[in-house]
Amino acid sequence: MTPPLSRRPLLGCIADDFTGATDLANNLVRSGMRTVQTIGVPADADAAVDADAIVVALKSRTIPADDAVAQSLAALRWLQAQGVEQVVFKYCSTFDSTPAGNIGQVTDALLDALHGPGQGFTIACPAFPDNQRTVFKGHLFVGDVLLSDSGMRHHPLTPMTDANLVRVLQAQTQRRVGLVDQAVVSRGAEAIAQRFRDLQADGVGVAVVDAVSNGDLFLIGRALAGMPLVTAGSGIAIGLPQNWQATGALAPSSVADRLPAASGLRAVVSGSCSVATNAQVLHFRQHGGEAFAVNPLDIAAGEDVAAQALAWATPRLAHGPVLVYATAEAEAVRAVQARLGVAEAGELVERTLSRIAAGLVQAGVRQLVVAGGETSGAVVQALGVTQMAIGPQIDPGVPWTAVTSPVYPGETVHVALKSGNFGSTDFFTKAFARLASETRA
Ligand SMILES: Nc1ncnc2c1ncn2[C@@H]1O[C@H](COP(=O)(O)OP(=O)(O)OP(=O)(O)O)[C@@H](O)[C@H]1O
Ligand SMILES: O=C(O)[C@@H](O)C(=O)CO
């Protein structure tokens, strides 16, 4: 049964990875929506969720497109059962995908489900200016360089070698892809909405939308009022809540959840090989942090690397946060992939890091930072997490959360899921200081 109107969430979101989900939930909370994040599609179809927005976190970014579509449609059906008015399909601000998927394929499936086969219209807008992701003339920039000139060209699973999003998306979708460029966006919400109508009349099904500032995202957000499906990065959260605030359906709520006080031991598990994470690992080690490097070739050779890492970490945990990392520079990653295969290398490392994370929590870690979206997905699943409450922001896109897990009933485990490219160089030390100061009684 659909929950009563007054308790219905307004916005339902489907995120294609777990760090991306907390990133979106964080931005929604900061923009005035009480937000609940679930891990996977909850089993209870009729659960009444007391929140303005729900983010369903999937791990569907790099799985086969058919599986990603099936999981996304299951999430859509569950969100529809909650009575949501609008759905956001959230992907990476660096548009992580390949011609095999999954952004275009999932977008097609969601549009088909909402509007009928081949029908409907939506946007694609990965812009997140607070994290230096901007879209101009359909081209995605990371800081001052094109996506294809950024570290993303070496991504282990989804190397991004073309910054032209119209071209990238057209290779993944059956629908025609169009563009709403900055000249239109700067003219305001009505001009943007008119351009949506014109493009749709011309047979376009998905429009890449330029955005170079939060101001653009506000204007785009207004033009998205009533659009059943929006596909975007987390930046879009800045512009959507205003539509319900304008109708009175949403009372502005102020802040993220106040999380319980931090306690327990501290650790970082990192499987991200991004430029930012490599710098963060180096910074942690150069500033005296204790660190254990996981070598994928040792895992492939049959060594019990998880047991070795835990034996190394256990006596050190009492003295401060420890770091366990597979993070490596692009050249080293390529060498490993050449030996083991891309997917196999990724899976081996993810499985090992998630066993290590579970072992660390078993050993008393209650403050855990995880770096990397795929890695976070594996870790959160290994910890049996079902829900995450969003707390204080460490850096744009990365909040602390308090997790609910039947594996740790009654325990507070604080977890921060850091997207590969997010966070300042001193993130791994700053994060714990932030949690201590923000949750102090
Ligand atoms: N040394 C390594 N060699 C090969 N693969 C590795 C190595 N270290 C990590 N990996 C794999 O690389 C992938 C990194 O993806 P992950 O999503 O965790 O990080 P990211 O892409 O930087 O983060 P995000 O998705 O948040 O941007 C994982 O599958 C991980 O297991
Ligand atoms: O949008 C981003 O950049 C992040 O939320 C993310 O999805 C990284 O995995």
UniProtKB/TrEMBL annotation:
EC number: 2.7.1.217
Taxonomic superkingdom: Bacteria
NCBIfam families noted in UniProt: OxoTetrKin
Keywords, sorted A to Z: ATP-binding, Carbohydrate metabolism, Kinase, Nucleotide-binding, Transferase
One MF term in the entry's GO annotations: kinase activity
Four-carbon acid sugar kinase N-terminal domain ranges (all copies): 11-238
Catalytic activity entry: 3-dehydro-D-erythronate + ATP = 3-dehydro-4-O-phospho-D-erythronate + ADP + H(+); 3-dehydro-L-erythronate + ATP = 3-dehydro-4-O-phospho-L-erythronate + ADP + H(+)
Record carries keyword ATP-binding: yes
Source species: Sphaerotilus montanus
Function: Catalyzes the ATP-dependent phosphorylation of 3-oxo-tetronate to 3-oxo-tetronate 4-phosphate.
Similarity comment text for this entry: Belongs to the four-carbon acid sugar kinase family.
Domain Four-carbon acid sugar kinase nucleotide binding intervals: 267-428
Protein's name according to its UniProt entry: 3-oxo-tetronate kinase
Top-level enzyme category: transferase
